[in-house]
Amino acid sequence: MRDDENSLRAIVLTALFAAMIYVGVLLRIPLPAIVGRPFIHFGNTLTAVAILLLGFRNGALAGVIGLGGFDLLNGYAATSWLTMLETLVVAIVLLAIFKAMKYNDSTKNIIILAIVAGVTKIFTSYATTVVEALMAGTAFAPALTAAFMSMLATVINSCSTAIITPILYFAFKNGLNHVLKRAR
């Protein structure tokens, strides 16, 4: 599915994943935090699946549209650029490691990639929360502390990404292969 990223099929799959990512964030559980308005959602998990299935360009594009679009339309417009940047960083890290694995999507490798996606998201979200605090006028040292104290939702989301990504990856891969065989 990564081979024909300019085909109509790839564009439709990118749009489909972008919509699923948006809905995955829309269905959320808010959590209290010192900085920002964090919540538990499945957008990051679906973004990781999109990146692994569609490749860097289309997977990252689906994530940027789905996650960034959610932010733009739901009161997070001022920091939507940070979400989009986070998505690109996760895509770069995931695909670099996947490429090093020679795109071998064995169960073990996909589990490793899911954990990498979750851990990467923890670091990017921490940096994003620091930037958000600085944008709000907080001094640097308190911003670091406040960002750390606001990591609960990120850790929960990252754990769910590490657990659910392999399940969804193989389900979507098998489903897409079945649909694509019938379309021929």
Can you tell me about this structure?
By secondary structure, the protein is mostly helical. It has a single domain, classed as Arp2/3 complex 21 kDa subunit ARPC3 (Orthogonal Bundle), CATH 1.10.1760.20. It has helices at about 10-25, 45-75, 80-100, 105-135, 140-150, 150-184, and strands spanning about 30, 40. A two-stranded antiparallel sheet has the order 1-2. A hairpin with an 8-residue loop joins strand 1 and strand 2 (about 40). The longest helix is centred in the last third of the chain and has 32 residues, at about 150-184. It starts with 7 loop residues before the first helix and ends with a helix. The model has no long low-confidence stretch (mean pLDDT about 90).
Topology:
Elements: H1 8-26, E1 29-30, E2 39-40, H2 43-73, H3 80-100, H4 107-135, H5 140-149, H6 152-183
Helix pairs in contact: 1-2, 2-3, 2-6, 3-4, 4-5, 4-6
Briefly characterize the structure.
Helices cover 77% and strands 2% of the residues.
Main structural class: mainly alpha
Measure the end-to-end span. Answer: 14 Å
What fraction of the residues are assigned to beta strands by DSSP?
under 5%
Largest sheet descriptor: 2 strands, antiparallel
Overall 3D form: globular
What is the arithmetic mean of pLDDT?
92
